[in-house]
Amino acid sequence: MNTTTIRRFVSALTLGLFFAATPGKTSAQTTYVPYSYSDYGHTWNIGVGPGYFGRSFLRSPYLTVNYEFDVANNFTIAPFIGFSSFRSNPLPWSNGYYRYRGTIVPVGAKASYYFDDVLELPANWDIYAAASLGAIYVNKRWEEGYTGRTGDIPGVNPVYVDLHIGAEYHVNDATGIFVDLSGNVSTIGVALHR
Partners of 160 in the beta sheet? Predict the structure, then answer.
């Protein structure tokens, strides 16, 4: 999947989420109920999806967990940790081919702003924009027999910076389902509200 295809997919999904979340003018059952900011925080978010890291945007499974705290009206901060691991393609060295196992663990905080009040969304929908900042732990382990330079994973910066857009549908007061799209990772998952 090339960069243009990914951008088109993200754009189409974003528009689809926006129109799906916009209340209809003719529906008698859709009513706007504003949340207080305390409804966003105290939430565990657990997501899975593809991660894209490194110079060649290596795609690998990604798992993330964060816990949101209310900071201000419509604004939360969520400390997070993620985990991604992949196996490289065989690479030539000396008289053979060797693979390495790459492990990437981002740790940091995600700041989110919720647009529910601005967009007058139904009470069971949240739409947000967010930014993440943190550090990335990287481990690169070669197969036995490789004697070349070990080094880091090319293009993986030790500083983690990412921009997000996302939406959550509240199944009930305690549980929601979310989609979070960003440049490095895109996840779907479950939100557990306290």
Answer: 134
At 49, give phi and psi (nearest 5°): 170, -170
Of 56-65, 75-84, 127-136, the range with the lowest mean pLDDT is 56-65
**φ/ψ of residue 118, rounded to 5:** -65, -45
pLDDT in tens, 92-122: 877 888 888 888 899 999 999 999 989 988 8
Note whether 99 and 87 are within 8 A (CB).
yes
pTM for the structure as a whole: 0.73
At 112 the three-state DSSP class reads strand
Cα separation of 142 and 150, whole Å? 7
Q: Which of 50, 45, 29 is nearest to 126 (CA)?
A: 45
